[in-house]
Amino acid sequence: MKLLSGIVLAPLVWLCLTSMGVAAEVLLLDGTTLRGDVLAIEQGTVQVRQENEEIRLPLERVLSIEWSADAPDAKASGELLLLDDGSRLHIVEASSDGRFVSATSPASGPLKIPQASIKAVRFKSETRELNEQWDKLLQKPSADDMLVIQKGMILDFLPGVVTEYNAKEVLFLYQGSEIPVKRERVFGMIHPRKSAGAAETLCRLLSRGGDELLLRRLSLTDGQLRGELLANVSVELPVEQITKLDFSLGRLAYLSDLNPEGVEHTPYFDTVWPFQRDRTNTGAPLRLGGKQYSKGLWIHSKTLLNYRLAGEYTRLQCLLGIDDAVAENGLGHVQVRIKADEKILFDEEVSALDDPRLLDLDLTNARFLQILVDFGKGLDVGDHLVLGEAKLIK
Q1: Which residues pair with 118 in a beta bridge?
Q2: Among 3.20.20.70, 1.10.10.10, 2.30.38.10, 2.30.30.100, what is the CATH number of 8-69+207-246?
Q3: Is 69 helix (H, G, I), strand (E, B) or coil?
Q4: Number of H helices and number of E strands within the chain?
């Protein structure tokens, strides 16, 4: 048994996984991927069998666990339940007695959810035109329930109070009178926004049926996952219906999602090359060493980026190299200097002839991060540096 050292988990983190013969990929925060059977996750550690070797590592080093797509997807229903905590569940046969909503999930079976935990219920299937209108209504401030009515391809709403509903009708208190509305006319119901509280999220679960569940506790034994949502709702579903457990929430931030506190760019000639997020200056995907990256920065010489960290992060991780689009022609040579406060963490030449290199830099207690891509050899021709998957880790 090989033990990888790491940080002790908070008491809320507990779970137990047993291998059911379903292949999994365990992605670690340092970019390493383990492929094999997840045997167990208990007492703050994950146990993975990779070929003939069993590896145990702290759960805090795990970014995600993703299962193969061999199993058939659960058929997503047209009805959708949105919870205040951000969870989304596809359902059928939704009804309410005013205190609880009862429904059936194709993935997890019967559900009974407090009405106070529900943000919205949608009865109809999505279309692009109607979905855009529905999303706008979800963002609309309201002190009352909104009964959303479909009129052809138009959504309208009435403010009032939804008292209860079943398969045939919705009872709706409107201007002091309770009126029955045929269920077939109702597109959905939106309730006033409420705070979901400050409960700690353990992970985000994605199911094959399109569900997205925010869990604060979970266990997985004998092929069944049992979890508790942030909204104090219990769910259960087979591992064959799970595509991913995402443990990254609140634990990292991509540089491309952050706004630099300061940006300075000095053109070599007259052409200005603004830095780009998640793409090149032409809008093409970021590529290094023949691999495409959906997240990262594209930076031309001479550019200086300053980020305020406020001591919140411990590591900077990325893959660094010259953009494949120019590197394959032998173009591009820059000097890269990365500083945390006044401490130089990296100061080296980067050339199109170099293989992409993985950086893992210590930012503990750093208040500021500075990234300078300076001129190298060859004027500034092809000086297109890519920081693939550039992320800050707490």
Answers
A1: 83
A2: 2.30.30.100
A3: coil
A4: 2, 34
CB 201 within 8 A of CB 249: yes
Q: What share of the chain is helix, strand, coil (3-state, %, to 5)?
A: 10, 55, 40
Distance between start and end Cα atoms, the chain? 28
> Cα 72 to chain center, whole Å?
23
**For the chain, what are the domain ranges?**
8-69+207-246, 79-190, 252-393
Beta 2-3 vs 53-58: how paired, if at all? Answer: parallel
Look at the domain 252-393 and name its fold. Jelly Rolls (2.60.120)
Q: Is the pTM of this model over 0.85?
A: no
103-155 residue pLDDT tens: 998 888 889 999 989 999 999 887 778 888 999 999 999 999 999 999 989 99
Condensed to tens digits (0 to 9), the pLDDT of residues 357-386 reads 999 999 999 999 999 999 999 889 999 999
Cα distances (angstroms) measured from residue 10 to each of 31, 216, 311, 333: 23, 12, 21, 45
Please give the Cα distance from 371 to 305 (Å, whole number).
5
